[in-house]
From TrEMBL:
This is Prolyl oligopeptidase family serine peptidase. One of its GO terms (molecular function) is hydrolase activity. InterPro entries: AB_hydrolase_fold, Dienelactn_hydro, Dienelactone_hydrolase-like. Residues 29-205 form the Dienelactone hydrolase domain.
Length: 234
């Protein structure tokens, strides 16, 4: 277990080193793209599921930092009565986590991404709106924060994955994000899984995992060829 400091609080980070990525080895590069993994409002309730996702992505050649951002407020799960007042604190901690990730050995600071689940995806959008080093977002069932819906900042390439009958974050959030990305001309992909709720099961889960691998490969593995500014093409 590693850690970073944010707002004077210790934030634990589970580190999963890249274990694949033959293209990186072929190019003779030791610096790997790296990804923050942000859990949902459930915190570590389903930690083993998040860890399985981290290991799967790491096997494709990415360093993964699974950030326990609720440590900032001392919570194990989100206290919904404090959600609005705590969200800016968690967002600050995620920005600090991007800074921390960029400084890790063998990490390419120009090829950073975020995989966010539900609340974690909302934090990914908020972070990427002000942090240009975030070059790709994977959004699982994320709500588009009201502030971003109003201000419409430019976001990096985004993969949107959402259940068609999600009772917690309605699919309208996915459609609103899609419209924002279309307006900006930002590379994006969207997959709405009909009949799926606020989690993916069976074949939908496998399909989503394959899409994540392809998407990150397109926008992070190839990002170094695009330079330090701008986004990788679709």
């Amino acid at each position: 277990m590693q850690s970073l400091t944010s707002g004077g609080r210790r934030i634990e980070v589970e580190w999963f080193a890249a274990s694949g990525g033959s293209a990186e080895i072929a190019r003779g590069s030791s610096a790997r793209p790296a990804v923050l993994l942000l859990h949902g409002a459930d915190g570590l309730t389903y930690a083993e599921g998040y860890r399985l996702a981290a290991r799967t992505i790491a096997a494709s050649g990415y360093h993964i930092a699974f950030v326990h951002y609720l440590d900032r407020t001392g919570d194990r799960r989100v206290a919904y009565g404090r959600l609005q007042q705590d969200f800016p604190l968690w967002a600050e901690s995620v920005r600090d986590a991007v800074e921390w990730l960029a400084d890790q050995p063998d990490t390419d600071a120009q090829r950073l991404g975020i995989v966010g689940i539900s609340l974690g995806a909302a934090l990914a959008f908020t972070t990427a709106a002000v942090e240009p080093r975030v070059r790709a977002i994977v959004d699982y069932f994320g709500p588009l924060p009201d502030e971003l819906a109003r201000e419409r900042p430019r976001l990096p390439p985004t993969l949107i994955l959402h259940g068609g009958v999600d009772p917690i974050v309605p699919v309208s959030h996915a459609r609103a994000l899609e419209r924002l990305l279309q307006e900006q001309g930002t590379p994006h992909e969207i997959r709405i899984y009909e009949g799926q709720g606020h989690a993916l099961t069976d074949s939908a889960q496998l399909d989503a995992a394959a899409r994540v691998t392809r998407f990150l490969g397109r926008h992070l593995q190839a990002a170094s060829a695009e330079g330090a500014t701008g986004f990788a093409g679709a």
